[in-house]
Amino acid sequence: MNVSNSSDIQSPTLDLIKHGINHAQTVNSDQVLYNRIKEAGDEKAQLKKAAQEFESIFITKMLSEMDKTVDKEKDGLFGNDNKYEEAFKGIVFQQMGHDMASNPRTSFGFADQIYRQMEHLVK
């Protein structure tokens, strides 16, 4: 899969990878997220995107916290050095959170509730 041509796949992680490892260290993922919300269109589209991103972040955090409750074996996926495994899991959890929040079949419904409660506040 060519990441540079996959504009339909959107996540802060993939946006950072597209810009290269060296540039990724200087880019703030919050700014990437903010830019994606601002580029969503009018205010209602931005609200919908912000609500969806909130749900995505919530799911990502939930998965990360759930992982902390699992007993870890002495030798993890990458041996005794867990920093690589933790970094990899963080990326996986972030993508899972984004995918789950983006799909109506797996969404928790937070985004829809937030949007419905706040849509009267935007034009």
Tell me the number of strands: 0
For this structure, the quaternary state is: single chain
- Report the mean per-residue pLDDT as an integer: 77
What would you call the structural class? Answer: mainly alpha
Order of helices and strands: HHHHHH
Task: Give the low-pLDDT segments.
Answer: 1-8, 21-26
Radius of gyration: 17 Å
Task: Count the domains.
Answer: 1
Measured by DSSP, the beta-strand proportion falls in under 5%
The helix count comes to 6
The biggest beta sheet, please? none
- The backbone outline, from C-alpha atoms, is elongated
Task: Bin the helical content.
Answer: 55-70%
Amino- and carboxy-terminal Cα gap: 39 Å
